[in-house]
């Protein structure tokens, strides 16, 4: 990916997340970046293609972060909490409309579904590593747990019932419940320390 594409994606992902996909037009993006609409459309054929590129890049960046933490020797819970901290900060400015509007873009939804299917085995193996590290309880069906978490996240993201709840609160109050419920005393201690620090940062 060249610097030109990075510049477009940097602005587009922020605009989409803060204002919603529908509210941001390709004209808006071209005007803000001071490029011609023709140039923008030559790079991304339409808004859905641009949105898909934004989502794909976010996944690539997350994968790089997790890989680096694994290489540094961090344990499973430390990695999960590090990623949770980043997600909590990121959701501060994300609008509910952005998440709800994703379902109106078939290519994006197809990609997200395929991404989940392609990565399920990797995620399950990663969580199982937490059992070997004494952080998660043995005997749990992590494939089922991961699937339930995904469905829960989709429900919260796409439901109007939670439109008045900050995304940060939604994320914190169900992701941590899942992880803490899977954890041993050693894992719980790490999670509770994380929750305490996040609470102190909010004050």
Throw out a few tags for this protein.
203 residues, mainly alpha, Tetracycline Repressor, domain 2, 0% strand
Short description:
By secondary structure, the chain is mostly helical.
What is the 3D shape? elongated
CATH class, named: Mainly Alpha
Do you know the CATH architecture?
Orthogonal Bundle
Give me the CATH superfamily: Tetracycline Repressor, domain 2
Q: Please indicate the count of domains.
A: 1
SS elements, strand count = 0
Total helical segments: 10
Radius of gyration (CA) equals: 19 Å
If you had to describe this structure to a student in words, what would you say it looks like?
By secondary structure, the protein is mostly helical. The protein has a single domain (3-202), classed as Orthogonal Bundle (Tetracycline Repressor, domain 2), CATH 1.10.357.10. Helix content is 77%, strand content 0%. The chain is built from 10 helices and no strands. Helix 9 packs antiparallel against helix 10. It is elongated, with a radius of gyration of 19 Å. The N and C termini lie far apart (40 Å).
């Amino acid at each position: 990916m060249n610097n030109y594409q990075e510049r477009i994606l940097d602005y587009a992902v922020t605009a989409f997340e803060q204002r919603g996909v529908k509210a941001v037009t390709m004209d808006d993006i071209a005007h803000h970046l001071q490029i011609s609409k023709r140039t923008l459309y030559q790079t991304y054929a339409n808004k859905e293609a641009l949105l898909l590129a934004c989502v794909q890049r976010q996944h690539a960046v997350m994968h790089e972060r997790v890989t680096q933490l694994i290489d540094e020797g961090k344990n499973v819970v430390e990695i999960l909490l590090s990623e949770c901290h980043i997600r909590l900060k990121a959701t501060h400015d994300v609008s509910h409309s952005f998440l709800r509007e994703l379902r109106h873009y078939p290519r994006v939804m197809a990609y997200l579904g395929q991404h989940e299917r392609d990565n399920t085995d990797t995620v399950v193996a990663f969580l199982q590593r937490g059992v070997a590290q004494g952080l998660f309880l043995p005997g749990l069906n992590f494939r089922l747990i991961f699937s339930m978490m995904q469905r829960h996240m989709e429900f919260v993201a796409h439901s109007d019932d939670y439109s008045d709840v900050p995304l940060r609160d939604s994320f914190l109050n169900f992701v941590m419940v899942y992880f803490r419920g899977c954890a041993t005393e050693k894992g719980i201690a790490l999670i509770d320390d994380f929750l305490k620090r996040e609470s102190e940062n909010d004050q």
